Amino acid sequence: MTTASYPSFPILAVDDEPAWLRSLRVALGRAGVDNLVTCQDAREVPALLAGRPFGLVLLDLNMPHVSGEELLARITVDHPEVTVIVISGMNQIETAVRCVKLGALEYFVKTQEEDRLVTGVLRAVRMLELERENREMASRVLSGAPRHPESFEAIVTRDRAMLAVFSYVEAVARSSQPLLVQGESGVGKELVARAAHALSGRAGPMVAVNAAGLDDAVFADTLFGHARGAFTGAEQARPGMIEAAADGTLFLDEIGDLAIPSQVKLLRLVQEGEYFPLGSDRPKRLRARVIVATHHDLAAKQAAGTFRRDLYYRLATHQVRIPPLRERKGDIPVLLEHFLAVAARELGKKKPTAPRELAVLLSTYSFPGNVRELKAMVHDAVSVHRERILSMETFVRAIERGGGAAAVRAAEAGENPFARLEQLPTIKDTVELLVEEAISRGGGNQTIAARLLGITQSALSKRLKASRES
């Protein structure tokens, strides 16, 4: 299996000293940068730039045949899309100023500490990645739809807000920075993460870890692994999930449930790009893209002091919110048909026909469990199905159970729809408006409207008749 190079664009290092180029390759390699092309003859640079999409050039100034300043000026004119960092043996302010005026992003001296040079290169790489991601996102927004819808085929939708999510995920899929996926339980956060991985072009696998319920010790061992003898019972070294996800994607689900000590470890991982297996004093590089998900309101958890603000900002470089099913009710008919087919196939039955009123009935429900709840409803209904037309009774019972719980929660929260009205409507007006709304939500179906109102269909018919005669 081939491994993905970092960054996605090649970097060209130009210097006539082969020993320096070898040293630079080693230093950048330790920082995870391996997409490096070296050149010892400045005269070859124009042809190299014309033949490959280099994003960054690391340029020495003192070279035979063509001076670095002359080459810098030529690159700036012929390849304005290429960023140049000058790395010179001379520590001269005038030269540095002149190079910046010619178009160089930064000027480093070879004799300065190696970490500063590597940090400068990583900073330039990140800047170029963000520029490319911004252009990609702008292109996706203008197009209004993903270019690779097949990557999202596991998510059944025709909702415009969901399609906008797809376009954004597609735009940032090749980024090396974390992606935060937020949304209620059951909306399909892991499916979105899998789509992002499929679009990333990474050679490695996607490895999923559910952080809910993991204490700090288990979390650390699960992610980082351990060396032999790290603790009692550790008779053999064991690699962690980070290593298993090398050159791929590490998906951490329910990160809102992490304890503070685990959050600190995760912060160091994404901030430094390295980690220590338990019992080892030798760091390992993070070679996976990190995607995290949560159903929690992280802003509220920050305010409560249960989620670190610095970790949030590290994880939220890219972020999407998956809308709940109640905000995309136009998806209910297509999801219903999809899950009927899936359930029938799994149960070895012929796909039943859903009554026309069923989608209307389901659209009146808030679905606190979202798509996962609808899938469970359909599977339950198909499992007991006997006739050609699917019975609505299992759905009615499920909605009554869920609706009752929702009503209790609303009552406990002290919600009163009339509380903010200056003038209360009369009982007669209130009942008429309530009936009108129920009829509207039920799509004109009195049976569904009666269920919404908690009365029998005959009682609703009498009320409607009395209203027309009055």
Q: What does this protein look like?
A:
With 470 residues, the protein is α/β, with parallel strands linked by helices. It has 4 domains: 11-132, 3-Layer(aba) Sandwich (Rossmann fold), CATH 3.40.50; 144-323, 3-Layer(aba) Sandwich (Rossmann fold), CATH 3.40.50.300; 335-415, Helicase, Ruva Protein, domain 3; 420-470, Arc Repressor Mutant, subunit A. It has helices spanning 18-30, 45-51, 68-78, 93-102, 114-143, 160-172, 189-200, 216-224, 241-244, 260-272, 298-303, 309-315, 332-347, 356-363, 370-383, 393-412, 427-441, 446-453, 457-469; strands at 11-14, 36-39, 56-59, 83-88, 106-109, 179-182, 206-210, 225-226, 238-239, 249-253, 274-275, 284-285, 289-294, 318-321. The chain has a 5-stranded parallel β-sheet with strand order 2-1-3-4-5, sandwiched between helices. Strand 3 (56-59), helix 3 and strand 4 (83-88) form a beta-alpha-beta unit. The longest helix is centred in the first third of the chain and has 30 residues, at 114-143. The protein starts with 10 loop residues before the first strand and ends with a helix.
Task: Describe the secondary-structure layout.
Blueprint: E1 11-14, H1 18-30, E2 36-39, H2 45-51, E3 56-59, H3 68-78, E4 83-88, H4 93-102, E5 106-109, H5 114-143, H6 160-172, E6 179-182, H7 189-200, E7 206-210, H8 216-224, E8 225-226, E9 238-239, H9 241-244, E10 249-253, H10 260-272, E11 274-275, E12 284-285, E13 289-294, H11 298-303, H12 309-315, E14 318-321, H13 332-347, H14 356-363, H15 370-383, H16 393-412, H17 427-441, H18 446-453, H19 457-469
Parallel strand pairs: 1-2, 1-3, 3-4, 4-5, 6-13, 6-14, 7-10, 10-13
Antiparallel strand pairs: 8-9, 11-12
Helix pairs in contact: 5-6, 6-7, 10-12, 13-15, 15-16, 17-18, 18-19
